[in-house]
From TrEMBL:
GO terms for molecular function: monoatomic cation transmembrane transporter activity. Keywords: Membrane, Transmembrane, Transmembrane helix, Transport. Its main location: membrane. Signal peptide: none annotated. One of its GO terms (biological process) is zinc ion transport. GO terms for cellular component: membrane. It is a multi-pass membrane protein. This is Cation transporter. Residues 10-216 form the Cation efflux protein transmembrane domain.
């Protein structure tokens, strides 16, 4: 979380400074693409604030209303951020770009725009470098895209995508602004705004997909589930793992539910000791699993009549 905070704070500082300068430059030069970039930076600033709020809420301790904690607050606010990127970033930029393509205005004093773009590229580039370095520390040798898909901390890859989209958007605006100025084709400035909007919508769909999956209850990978199956079935008192359910409560907390078939001759004390032993093995092997719920099932009891008792450890 601390690493994610570092990249969020760096992105927040960069976007706040850049948004102001972009709006000033856009007002002086009648550039729709620069105004679109200002909107983009404003949305990004708001997004970082929402992520910080989500991170703060997610570390609240469990209470009687949320017995498993508030970890999913982070997933909720990450999903809200993806919606904001789509609506306030993408749709507004496209709408403004289409308007300026239909009614193009000649750029005035384009030097302002070039100066702001250069400054923005430095700040956004520095923020992107920080985000890349911080995310690189968490991917554990995995390829970048696979690490993003497997990541359960949206605050890390969300900032990475935002900064990457910001840098790419600046390059699009710069190229089309140069062409618009030198070829006297002012409609290209509006086209740049549309392209930036399309880029933001594309990014918003990727982020929404990942955040939605976590918010809806994404669980442990099939590989990890198979390892857990081998671990529990290696115990002398366990016959078989009948069912395994899991869900991420936060990037560092997993809720695990298992239905196990135990040996028929176990006493109540033997059963309790076996459950304690399995709990310790699982938590020792996987420190991310914070909640373990085990429902025992005797080998001689048909599945339809199995005990409804659930042991919460």
């Amino acid at each position: 979380m601390a690493r994610a905070n570092k990249s969020i704070y760096s992105a927040l500082a960069a976007n706040l400074l850049i948004a102001v300068t972009k709006f000033i430059a856009g007002a002086f030069t009648n550039s729709s693409s620069m105004i679109a970039e200002g909107i983009h930076s404003t949305v990004d600033t708001s997004n970082q604030l929402l992520l910080l709020y989500g991170l703060k809420k997610s570390v609240k301790p469990p209470d009687k209303y949320r017995p498993f904690g508030y970890g999913k607050e982070l997933y909720f606010w990450s999903f809200i951020v993806s919606i904001m990127i789509f609506g306030l970033g993408g749709v507004v930029s496209i709408s403004q770009g289409i308007t300026h393509m239909r009614h193009p205005e000649t750029l005035v004093n384009p030097g302002w725009n070039y100066a702001v773009l250069a400054l923005s590229f430095v700040f956004e580039g520095a923020s992107l470098v920080v985000a890349i370095k911080e995310f690189d520390k968490t991917r554990k040798g995995l390829p970048w895209w696979k690490a993003i898909i497997k990541s359960k901390d949206p605050s890390g890859f969300l900032v990475l995508f935002e900064d990457g989209a910001a840098v790419l958007g600046l390059l699009i605006v710069f190229v089309l602004m140069v062409l618009s100025h030198n070829l006297n084709m002012p409609f290209l400035d509006g086209l740049a705004s549309v392209l930036v909007g399309i880029l933001l919508i594309f990014v918003s769909f990727i982020l929404a997909r990942e955040s939605r999956s976590l918010l809806m209850g994404e669980g442990l990978t099939p590989e990890t589930q198979q390892k857990l199956k081998v671990l529990v079935e290696a115990d002398e008192d366990v016959i078989a793992l009948k069912s395994l359910l899991s869900t991420y409560q936060s990037p560092k907390e997993v809720l695990l539910l298992m239905i196990l078939t135990f040996q028929a001759d176990l006493t109540t004390e033997d059963l309790t000791n076996a459950i304690d032993r399995l709990r310790d093995k699982i938590k020792h092997e996987y420190d991310i699993i914070k909640f373990v719920i085990i429902q025992p099932q005797s080998v001689n009891i048909p599945e339809r009549d199995q005990s409804e008792d659930i042991y919460i450890l």
